[in-house]
Amino acid sequence: MRRVVPSLVIAGLLVSGGIVSCGTSAESPAESPSASTSPSAPAEFSIPADQQDKLVPADARTITDPADPQATLVLFTDYQCPYCAMMDTLIQQAKADYGDQVQIVVRNYPLPKHQNAEPSARAVEAAAEQGAMEQMAAKVFEHQQDWKTESNVDDIFAGYAEELGLDMEQFEADYNSDAIKDRVARDLQDAQDLSIQHTPTLLLNGKEIQFESGAYSEIQEQLDAALGR
């Protein structure tokens, strides 16, 4: 049985008939779940075949990775973007419904205008090194209002790691490592090279899913079509 995505979440995703998002422009208005930001990308936006390796690198983080995936769903997310927090609910639903057939990939797109987007991405990446990517992502999204404007978030994210029972020595080493910093920077560069214009951006087999209502059914319908259901 499929979970019903809460109507409050869906309502929060809707502005002027489409899914709202955090735009890449530094001049975009301040985001809050009740205010519109930049519009969705143009219809039919897709990644060229010769750039698929940049879309899904060999070492990309996955939340589902079936042995023989029938489709690939890629999410570009910014952990400081309120709409990415909302999208996370839909992605978790897709994982529950399609995880045995669909590879779901999560890429970082820490928008430069968001002061704590990069360290929050590093916190999630550091947790991923201990198999806790989704748990840390849930923490940073849940407490987004607590850290988004803080001048020093290192201790806050370390606190989340401790709550998750992670090895703290390893977490702090990974969080501050060049390897994790480079991974986040590479994801950002790939997003920019691929002309991703906003977060969240969700692509199915290289083509962006365009939202009209913001309902989970819009993801569901396209996944069903891709799987020949």
UniProtKB/TrEMBL annotation:
The keyword Signal applies. InterPro entries: Thioredoxin-like_fold, Thioredoxin-like_sf, Thioredoxin_domain. Residues 25-51 are annotated as: Disordered. The keyword Disulfide bond applies. It comes from the Bacteria. Residues 1-21 form the signal peptide. It holds the Pfam family Thioredoxin_4. Residues 36-228 form the Thioredoxin domain. Residues 25-44 have a biased composition (Low complexity). Keywords: Disulfide bond, Oxidoreductase, Redox-active center, Signal. Belongs to the thioredoxin family. DsbA subfamily. This is Thioredoxin domain-containing protein. It comes from Arthrobacter gandavensis.
